[in-house]
Amino acid sequence: MEKTAVLRRHLSGEDTQTVGKWILTIVFGLISLVWMMPIVIVLYNSFKNNGAVNSELFALPDAGSYVGFDNYINGMTFGNYPFYLSVGYSVFITVVSTFLILLCTSMAAWYISRVDDLFSKVVYYLCVFSMVVPFQMVMFTLANTARDLHLDTPWTIPVVYLGFGAGLAVFMFVGFVKSIPIDIEEAAAIDGCGPLRTFFSVVLPMMKPTLISVGVLEIMWVWNDYLLPYLVLDVTKYKTIPIHIQYLQGSYGRVDLGATMALIILSLLPILIFYLTCQKHIIKGVAAGAVKG
After folding, report:
1. What is the rounded distance in angstroms from the CA atom of residue 158 to the CA atom of residue 233?
2. Global confidence as pTM
């Protein structure tokens, strides 16, 4: 019986599939380690003094180079611009920008999916086209336009992020809305729901997987973005966390690498925890929106 089972597995290719899965697991495990190495290097260098970081970047901390949490304290207290203010600006910009993107693009995607006319198609393809336009092509024009329209403050820059984040969000939301049976919305209309009530009471709750998926991607993008705030904001008044880290310089342009790496770790922790908590929803949202339409 045992020989028969082995022969059956061999003929069906189960052994080959098992070996293939183990090989893929090992290969992707090694790739994951390679991708994690920069984060590990930054982490243990954040506990070394500046001289050790400059001379022995890949060496682990020892008795002579270990400084504990001094780099974290120095990074947060460096200069005249408080670090907590940069954290506040980053949190505000990230939360408001993500909220605007999710709300506006989900409503736009529902309209595009349900109203099949030339205007809807033009808006949809413009959103898709915006995904392939490099930011470097429009960054100087954008910065000047933002200043002319007074969008160069932390309270107004979410409008700029809405424009850049709309392409991917609309693309994913449209794919998901097309998978929702229109009969549900017709039943809501028969019960007396208007368009707004139908969207917020019926459609929006059903879009939860894609909402979470798009939200995670947008939060990671806005939180880590350096170039757009640097071009649009007045960096003498407003600094997000990436800009604050960039300005950790002393006299004659000397950079405290230990403090810099400490603040990089502090900036990574919230978004890393958030991503690890919500990563399963990204796959669900992408799969839910991957319909042909």
Report:
1. 12
2. 0.83
